[in-house]
Amino acid sequence: MADVPLALASPLQQSSLVEQIYRRLQHALMHGQMLPHQRLKVRELAASLGTSETPVREALFQLVRDRAIEIKSRHYVRVRRPTAREYLQIREVRLRLEPLAAASALPNLAEADIASLERLQSEFCAAQALGRYDDALRLGVEFHFGLYRRSENPVLIGILESLWCQIVPVISLPYLTRHSYDVTPHDAALAAIRAGDPVALARAIEADLMLGSSVVIGHLLELEEGETRLQRIA
To answer: What is the CATH code for 6-79?
Structure first.
């Protein structure tokens, strides 16, 4: 076999940098640190990350493929807001995949994993009670993916991360985060985990996905109706 040219090492290093930037931006999207239609400036992102603009652009293109951000005319980059129809389509996929991820994780959960989930749920409830809705959203994401990642199925996790990048910016809007519940499906999920019951766990995850959906969908429909009226007037 012929020797691999040394020049091929450079793109791999660049690719690694792009992946790191992509993961940081993905994390920000998934944890409610960006809002719909928020503008993303390549130069500012590069400066904050301490890198050149080229890998930032490549990472943003990956997020465009994930449908998490969009490029408008004249290279105007912003966080994408899904339509109500798209949100429903994403929810349909999540209702199939997230219960699967949770049930698949169940046999792999050690006592330390369960204790971590219980801690996250306790902090989640405390944040909601204190009106720290940004923290509650972040803790909710960590609860779900702390469970799902124990499925040890990177293909499944990659799909779910992409879907959450699309919806969390909408959910993170202040109007939508200020909803608290005395008993959350997270509690039912923890009870199912303790009981070792995959069916009950899957049902708890389904209930959690449905709980706030109507609020989000109603908000998106309201926005779209307002935009349609403005277009008619114009």
So the answer is: 1.10.10.10
Which single residue is written with the structure tokens 């490549």? 58
pLDDT tens for the chain, residues 1 to 234: 444 444 444 444 566 999 999 999 999 999 999 999 999 999 999 999 999 999 999 999 999 999 999 998 777 899 999 999 999 999 999 999 999 999 999 999 999 999 999 999 999 999 988 989 889 999 999 999 999 999 999 999 999 999 999 999 998 875 555 655 556 899 999 999 999 999 999 999 999 999 878 888 988 999 888 888 777 776
Structure tokens at 166: 């699309």
Q: How many residues does the chain have?
A: 234
CATH 1.20.120.530 domain span(s) along the chain: 84-222
pTM, 2 dp: 0.86
In angstroms, the CA 192 to CA 13 distance is 44
Domain 84-222, second-level architecture: Up-down Bundle (1.20)
Q: What gap in Å lies between CA 148 and CA 134, rounded to an integer?
A: 21
Give the C-alpha separation, 115 to 92, whole Å: 30
Instruction: Give me the helix-helix angle, 84-105 and 154-171, nearest 10°.
Output: 140
Q: Which residues contact 177 (CB under 8 A, 6 or more apart)?
A: 32, 133, 134, 136, 137, 171
